[in-house]
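Deliverable D5.2: sample structural annotation.
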Amino acid sequence: MGMSQSYGPADRDESVATILHALDIGVTFLDTANVYGVGHNEHVVGKAIAGRRDEVVLATKFGLSPGDDGLKVDGRPEYVHQCCDESLGRLGVDHIDLYYQHRVDTTVPIEDTVGAMAELVDAGKVRHLGLSEASSDSLERAAAVHPIAALQSEWSLWTRDLEDDVLGTARRLGIGIVPFSPLGRGFLTGAITSSDDFGPDDMRRGHPRFEGENFDANLAVVAEVRRQAEAKGCTAGQLALAWLLAQGDDVVPIPGTKRRTYLDENAGAVDVALRPDDLDALAEVTAKGAFSGARYARPNANFGTYGTSPPKD
C-alpha cells in the first residue's frame, strides 16, 4: 500500500526494484489491493512480476471503493466478479492465488459474497479465498460456504486485539493468519520520535496513537522493545517481526516497505531466534492496553487518503 498512498509520494521505479529484490532474496508472498492508489498498486505489482509470475504467491483484495465521502464497503456478488476481472487486467495475470474480501459488508449476507468468490475459484480465476478484519461469526459463516485459506487482520506487539477471540476461531477452522501492520505503522521500529517525522500527506497524522500524550506514552513502551532488541543483537523492527513469526507456523506477517534498504532489514527477522523467556518479556511490556490511544480515529481511517485517481509517480 505504501508504494501508492498514505506514506508519502509514489516512486514506481523504486517500488518495482524493491519487489524484484524481494523475489531475489526469497520472498514469495506479495499482497496488494484494488483500492491501493485506486488501481495504481496493482499496476506496479503487475509490472514487477511480469516474467516471474511462477515465483509469486499473489494476493489482492476487493470490496472497498473510494469516494468523496470516504470508503464504501461493497460485497454484492456482481461487484465481486467485476472487481476480480479488473484486478486480473491490472495485474496482467490469468489467476489470483489468494483473493480477499477487504472488509465484510454488513448489508450483504457474507454467504452471498463468499458464494460469488467461490464461483471465481470454479472459473479458475482465483485459487484460494480470504477475509480481512472479519469477526469470528463472519469466519464461521464464510467457512461454511467455502474453505477460507487466510485471515488478514492487524496483529502485532502494537495491536493484540486479535488474540481475544478471532485468533482461536481462525485456528479451529484451519485458517492461516496474515498480520498486516506488523510493525505498528512503523512505530515499533523505533525510528519515529516526533510527529515532525510525518509528511503532510502521511496517514499517521491525526491518528490517536501518534498524537500528544499518547505519542509520548507509546514512545516509552517502544523504548523498552528497543532495549530488548539490543540485547538480542537485532533491531526493534526485527524483534517485533520475530515475535509474530514465533506465534506459529500458520502466521505470515506482511511488513510493508517502499525501499530495498528496509526490505533487507525486515527479511533479517527470520534469523532472530526467540526463547520462551524472550517471548514472556515482550508479552509483559506489550500486554493489551500497554499502548495508548485508539487503533483508528474513525471507521475506515486506517486506509488513509485514497482520493479518486491514481497517484503521480
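Annotation notes: Confidence is low (pLDDT under 50) at residues 300-307. Residues 212-232 form the longest helix (21 residues).
The annotation will be released with the project's public dataset once the embargo ends.
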